[in-house]
Amino acid sequence: MKTATGYQGIPRWIYAVAAVGGLLVVLPLVAMLAKVNWPQFVPLITSESSLAALGLSLRTSAASTVLCIVLGIPLALVLARGEFPGQRLLRAFVLLPLVLPPVVGGIALLYTFGRQGLLGKSLEAAGIQIAFSTTAVVLAQTFVALPFLVVSLEGALRSAGNRYEAVAATLGARPTTVLRRVTLPLVLPGLASGAVLSFARSLGEFGATLTFAGSLEGVTRTLPLEIYLQRETDADAAVALSLVLVAVAVAVVGLSYGARRSSTPAEVRP
Amino acid sequence: MRTLRLKKCIVGMSVALGLAGALTACGATAPAATPTSNSGASQLSGTVTVFAAASLKATFTQLAKDFEAKNPGTKVTLSFAGSSDLVTQISQGAPADVFASADTKNMTKLADAKLLDGTATNFATNVLEIAVPPSNPASISSLADLAKPGVKVVTCASQVPCGAATETVEKASGITLSPVSEESSVTDVLGKVTSGEADAGLVYVTDVKGAGDKVMGVPFPESDAAVNTYPIATVSSSQNKELAVAFIASVTSEAGKKVLGDAGFGAP
Amino acid sequence: MTFELQASLRSRNFEMSLSLKDGETVAILGPNGAGKSTLLGVIAGLLRPDSGSARIGDKELFNLDGGTHLWSPPHLRGTALLAQEALLFPHLNALDNVAFGPRSAGASTAAARETAHHWLEEVDAANLAKRKPAQLSGGQAQRVAVARALAAEPELLLLDEPMAALDIHAAPLLRRVLKRVLQDRKAIIVTHDVLDAYMLADRVIVVEKGHITEVGATRQVLERPRSHFAAGLAGLNLVTGTITEDGITTPDGRVFAGHHDSGWSPSPGQAGVAAFPPSSVSVFLGDVHGSPRNSFPVTITDLEPHGDQIRVRAGDSAQALSADITPAASADLGLVPGMDVRFVVKSALVSVYPA
Asked: Residue C230 falls within a domain, yes or no?
């Protein structure tokens, strides 16, 4: 891939600044690693409440990732390919959760799906209660994670262009067939990395969940909430669980990069 | 003492990886309080930094204002957070002169770490109260009402002081609650009640008072089983112990008790 | 089942109408930006004109005239498009790329693959079936793309400079393949290459600046070009002017003697053109003896190699002329751009016909 002899055009001092940037991210993780109570590590992370939180986090993150894919693909498509009034505005709103403090997201969700909320009132009348349920956790996670999938996929769609789609259409493929057999396979790497980012973001979601879903073991208390709570009394448990969360996140992000790299050659034309 | 302080700084720095807090603690030479005598309160000067539990925000803000008014030339810097957060910060070298905790447990932690100057003084108590939305949709009038089916109760998680108190009350009264959520802070419990998501929440009397008319308080006799005591003490690394002691004295004075009492705190 | 089209798109200054008989292949020639790709886009349904209509037999592709707004989407038109780049779907192997059309038409996977095999054989690419597009050379990919377009059984095949991106070694094979498969097939091929027009097309349409400037049978257009563009493609000098008894006179007074087409009786005063190959032009220094006709003073603008000859260009673009001479002659004369010389045209090789 990269040849050692090739001219890189990077000034030497850039490496020094880059190293500082890298350390800023890595050093706190190392510091945390140094704080881990290793003899107690396994018992700490396999306690009943820890396992319940980890399991809940993985389940809800998986569910919200699926929801992100289902809702995010159409959103990315209309943003990247569609032409309609208010498109820029829609993009701005979809991306809003990226810059919004999660707590604000939680409050907004509360006033939408809560008992007194915009939709919540009707849902309550229909016998559906979202607040304090696992559904609420998934909704909160989807709210904050959706932009990651949309941004990633929209970028992939834009750089892919629509020439393949035009050819497919002239070959007699209906738009739905084009989407299924051409567009999605073409942007699969972008979709995969978007999904992975969404999963990672869901896994780390804290503020919106705390505000909107509450905190109950096995129902709404995800790993970040458990860490926050353990911190009150048992710093060792909090550190150990943090490490688990970091490990899962690193694994997920690493997988995504690995997958993206292995899928790139298919797109390279000779 | 200078050398001792410096050594602590180095330790603090290596632990906190050169975080800004530690740098400040080392770099800033505390405004030299040059005590000539300790006879008159008017002689006091300088800055006193008070780390206080989040539940003391309203009262301590008032007490600090009163203190500054009574002692011109002094300044009270306040920092509010959860008691355990504050203990962590102080043991990492944060520049606190006074620590006011929401429970004795966290004060003990600091005492065990030899970070206290002298012993702590209890200055207030707090008990639980039921917070309900002003309309009281579930018609809650007693602790037993909270255990009724269909009532959505939110409590603090047992890891935090208000949750521990809730557990104690439950045990003493024999009433078992099944909360829909166990929050890690009083604010989150109140948030669920004020937004109408929950029918009731268990928090401290002072929290109900502090929330104003957004919630209504329902006192219950079983709360006597868990009286929470607030201790206050001087931090050993304080650069201005005289001022620290004076501030503590003002908290425990009659005027201080009045401010605390108005906010719902009980006398120790 | 004839194809008829009439369309205009004001934003691109595009207005064309054309028709194709059954089994006819038409080559569209024209300079860059003349509207060739716009034409294909409009036919394929990828570009919507302001007005016009198009139909293949009874099937209307679009009709935007007289208040009607019929616009058939690309996938219902039966107009497969083959572009300059093969654009094979990178995630499918060659076979499945070719099977794409039949599958979209509802065939089972097995049936579609069988059809695909047949078409891969047609383009001499059966051995490439299992390869992914990334493993194909440009020429191989383009042949697979031809098979893919044909497998969709288009009623009208659109080819947008299919040879342009290929290296000179790959083009002949594809050209042979196209000649075979375009036999008896309705197709429109946009090209820059006169060879494509000769080999593949029954008819040539020259477009310039969004409009059709010349239409005719391939031989006729290339041997008797009336537009500078067609003449340039055919490698001929073209001069426009007024017909005289034995040639034409240009507006600037130059006289070109030549022979009129047999079976055509010229009427003097009529607008006409004279065409002659650069090889019929000789270059001299200074004054020349003999007939003053067909002898013109010019200033050399360019010298460039052309096969084993040197092409000498002279004059401004509207009345530019070229002469082909041997490198030895060029060296003897010491030709350089900017030099004033005299071009002498052999009248026996000058064709004169109406514009």
From this structure: no
